[in-house]
Amino acid sequence: MERNNDFKYFVEQFEDIRVLRYQLPGFESLTLQQKKLIYYLSQAALSGRDIIWDQNFRYNMLIRKTLEAILDHFSGDKEPAEYKAFLVYAKKVFFANGIHHHYSNDKLKPGFTGSYFATLIEGIDRNCLPLAAGQTVEEFISLLTGVMYDEKLFGRKVEQRAGADMVAESAVNFYENVNQKEVEDFYAGKTDPQDPHTVSIGLNSKVSKKEGKIIEEVYRSGGLYGPVIDQIIIWLEKAIIASDSEMQRKEIGLLIDFYRTGNLKVWNDYNVLWVQDNEPEVDYNNGFIETYSDPLGMKATWESIVNYTDIEASRRTKIIAANSQWFEDNSPTQPQYKKEKVTGVAAKVINIAILGGDCYPVSPLGINLPNANWIRKEIGSKSVSLANITNAYDITSQGNGFLEEFTADQSEVDRIKKYGPLAEALHTDLHECVGHASGKLAEGTDPNALKNYASPLEEARADLFALYFMMDKKLLDLGLLPREDAAKASYDTYLRNGLLTQIVRIKPGKDIEEAHMRDRSAISHWVYEKGREENVVELFRKDNKRYVKINDYFRLRNLFGDLLKEIQRIKSEGDYEAGKNLIENYGVKVDPELHAEILERYKKLNLAPFTGFINPNLIPVYNQKGDITDVKVEYPNDFLSQMMDYGRKYSFL
Ligand code: ZN
């Protein structure tokens, strides 16, 4: 819906990084009140940016301000290779929100010398530099080059190697001048394991030693990051006024209380309300949420996203959920293993309107929060998939040569380009909304009977449910697919992935271990073998490269149906041996010769393994009285310019 097909997603690629843009489909049709709410929440999301920079490493803000100063003011020769290397380094630092790689955690290596860096700094007015009081430019340069170039200093953002002092050896700024034991002693006994509604102790603070004393500084208004948090609060207060939901207003009020006090009990109260507010058209995350960057798994990085419901995708999942009994009754499984009454789940699909903090520029693909276990168990959790972000990935992966390299037939490529994204989305909807929800166990079957094979088998069951119905006329009748051909794109993609390309993620000599990968491998190899006599699916060579070809889509559909029937039986009866054989024989092993070929072909495509995004700009339109009358969306197209823009507008530390 209102998705512009000529939209330019790809922005640029440098080293192992690719930058994309994402679209805001249907944004224009939101109400003014919803647009205003999104705008205020997005300003809150962007205002917290400095926090993640400082959390990642205590010199990151200083380095960022220096890079910004050079980019803004250096007027010397910009042609030399060293300046170009400086630009790449700057982009990598902006991408990682600091000088450590966002994924590997290693300190980024500048591709230019320390003396060239000194030349750049000396080439600009000293008043533009973030010098400390009384600091000379020489002292400043020596400090920065030490931090950036000395291999013995701050080498890893997070160090979890066995035997390491994870606190002292990690550069992440949750701790300073303390070791692991001191931190563990500091928190020992502070939580009551008996308290069922425990707070996430240490979530929002920094621990350091000053004058021999261990102190904890809490992130709050008037405390650590106070100036940034005050800005976040200003925008959240406006968001309260813009929201038309009593519950949402109350919940944002609690979030503000939390930012004012740093009180983790209030954070719990906030999350309890937020998770119950299940169906807002406009929703958000904002706070200290994920603890992946703390080697001790206690302290959370600051993040925020703002999102709105994808009307089109949610229309799809509603139709599927409303017809879930029809799907159940017409599935090829045995009657005794069907549910008499099945309730489909209308999974929520959202579009991201802004990414902020630790979610920018690298976005998650799905969100499942809150993290506190007792809230998840007693109240629930929200789980959503991010339609426009996934869409950007899908579309750009079509233009990167991958599809062409692994598909022999041009008409197949064209069909996937035309129908692939819709077919994939529909596959996911069927998988989530009815696949997992279908079927029942026989009387007396132990639900844990399939043990370690339970998850790949369960994923295979949901996938097969989707694959089987993808070719059904019912989808055309329900208006979910425009024509039968579209379903073929789904079958082509599925088998190419399961038989050939998904193993690019596996290292040579290793088995397939991840549940979804085992599921796809098992299904693909099983239908290939069972259809072999009739040549339903063909593996063939051309110019010494292997390809997949489906010769009979309808026969293939029946094979998917046969396997669905068998896997439902295995689950319903808890037939561990049969389940084990299926996964072990078809889902685990990789043919080493094929593997080498696929990896070689993939390498030649020179694809960047890490992807991040530029945010759209949300621009309010005011009338003469100063009221917002509309919010317009612009899509900037330069990564570095957006970073510089954010540095000017949202820097409070
Ligand atoms: Zn699943």
Could you characterize the architecture of this molecule?
- The structure is a single chain.
- The chain has 653 residues and is an alpha+beta fold.
- It has a domain at 226-610: Fructose-1,6-Bisphosphatase, Chain A, domain 1.
- Helices cover 47% and strands 14% of the residues.
- It is built from 24 helices and 15 strands.
- The chain has helices spanning 32-47, 49-56, 60-73, 81-96, 114-122, 137-149, 180-187, 226-242, 246-261, 264-276, 311-322, 324-330, 373-378, 387-398, 402-406, 410-435, 454-470, 473-477, 484-499, 515-530, 553-573, 576-586, 592-604, 639-649; strands at 10-14, 17-21, 175-176, 205-210, 213-218, 282-290, 301-309, 348-357, 366-369, 382-386, 537-542, 545-550, 610-614, 617-622, 628-634.
- The strands form 5 sheets. It has a 5-stranded mixed sheet.
- Helix 17 (454-470) packs antiparallel against helix 21.
- The mean pLDDT is 94.
- The structure holds zinc ion.
Please tally the helical runs, counting DSSP H or I stretches of 4 or more residues. 24
Average residue-wise pLDDT:
94
> In total, how many beta strands?
15
Instruction: Name the CATH class of the domain at 226-610.
Output: Alpha Beta
Low-confidence stretches: none
CATH topology of the domain at 226-610: Fructose-1,6-Bisphosphatase, Chain A, domain 1
**3D shape:** globular
Radius of gyration: 27 Å
What amount of the residues lies in strands? Answer: 5-15%
Bound molecules: zinc ion
- How many strands, what sense, and barrel or not for the largest sheet? 5 strands, mixed
Strand order of the largest sheet: 6-7-8-10-9
Share of residues in helices: 40-55%
Distance between the termini: 41 Å
CATH architecture of the domain at 226-610: 2-Layer Sandwich
SSE class? alpha+beta
